[in-house]
Amino acid sequence: MAENWREFLGAGWKFPLQVTPNGGIARSLAEQRIEESIFMILSTSKGERKMLPDFGCGIHDLVFAPNNAGTIAQIAYDVREALVLYEPRIDILDINIETVSEAQNLLLIRIDYHIRSTNNTGNIVYPFYITEGT
C-alpha cells in the first residue's frame, strides 16, 4: 500500500515505445510518466496529430529563426503555453533557455516544475535545434 498513494500520477506505455525482455510493452509510472509527457508535448508540433490539431508546442515553427533574444522569448512563451494547456498535473516554476557556445544552433530549454498532487519538484532539459534563418 505504500506505493498506492502515487497511482493517481498515472501509468502507461513507456515513451518512446519499448519492449521488455519477456516480450511485453514497457511501462512507466508516476513521476517518470510526467517527464515523458512533457517530452512528448514539446516534441509534437501543432497540427501533427490530425485528431488533435491543437496539441503540441509551437516551437517547431521557429526551426529556422535566428538565435536571438526575440526567438528565445517566443520559445519560452510557446513552451509555457503548451505545458499549461496539456499537462494539468504540474505547475511551471521557471523556464530558462541557454545557448551553447560550442553549438550556436542548439538551445537547451530547462523547465522547472512542481507536481501538484505530491508537492514534489522536478526539472527537465529539452534540447532544441535551430538554424540561422539569414
The biggest beta sheet is recorded as: 3 strands, antiparallel
Strand content: 25-35%
Structural domain tally: 1
Structural class: alpha+beta
Residue windows where pLDDT falls under 50 for at least 5 positions: none
Order of helices and strands: EEHHEEE
Compact description:
By secondary structure, this protein is of the alpha+beta class. It is 24% helix and 29% strand. The strands form two sheets. The protein has a three-stranded antiparallel β-sheet, covered by helices on one side. A two-stranded antiparallel sheet has the order 1-2.
Give a description of the structure:
With 134 residues, the chain is of the alpha+beta class. The protein has one domain (4-129): Nuclear Transport Factor 2, Chain: A. The protein contains two helices and five strands. It has helices at residues 30-43, 69-86; strands at 11-13, 27-29, 90-100, 103-115, 121-129. It is globular and about 45 Å long. It starts with 10 loop residues before the first strand and ends in a 5-residue tail after the last strand. The model has no long low-confidence stretch (mean pLDDT 85).
